[in-house]
Amino acid sequence: MLGTVLNAATVITGSGIGLALKKALPEKYTVIYFQAVGLFTLVLGIRMSLNISAPLVVVLSLITGGLFGEFCGLQDRMNRLGDNLKARLKIGSVNFTEGMVTAFLLFCMGTMTILGSVEEGLTGNMSDLLKTKSLMDGFSSLLLASALGIGVLFSVIPLTIYQGGITLIVRLIGKDIPESYINEITVVGGVILIGLALDILNIKKLRILNLLPALIFVCIFLFIQGII
Fold this sequence. Notes:
mainly alpha; globular
């Protein structure tokens, strides 16, 4: 999990610098930054989702995952977790939860997260993809933290759990993961990123976290499809 450790370290470092620069950054730069990030996220999500090869599996995964996430109240639970952390640590940032969730989704829904974590799990060595991703996330966290505050720093908690979890699972049981699984997981991640882009651009507020179980359901449906 050295790649995940490095990634968390760069996010913490970038967030710390961003927080230090927060008061010095005029609001107009924050606005244009989010517009740029939102548009890039939209393009990235579309690009990832265009590689779809099992549309029925993907749509079933998104629907089932969304319903399951809504049933479990993932979005509400994360909001409560953010509010509780903010209260316990006496953090005054009004955007604490938004910063944590937005940063986590931006850092973890991309192809590099999935492929890099799988590669590290299979080889046992730090993935070059995760090294590159760590550098990119460090710079992104600097800008995000300057705009959304300290919540971005705390995104290292779900980032470590999610990214490190993929590496550990692959290390334990994933010696021969079919390429189709990785491809369709990437497609589902792309759709989630499109939703996040709409949120960042203030086009539509979506309960994005409730769609995250789709990343698990797509594997389940692909497995069922393979044995039918």
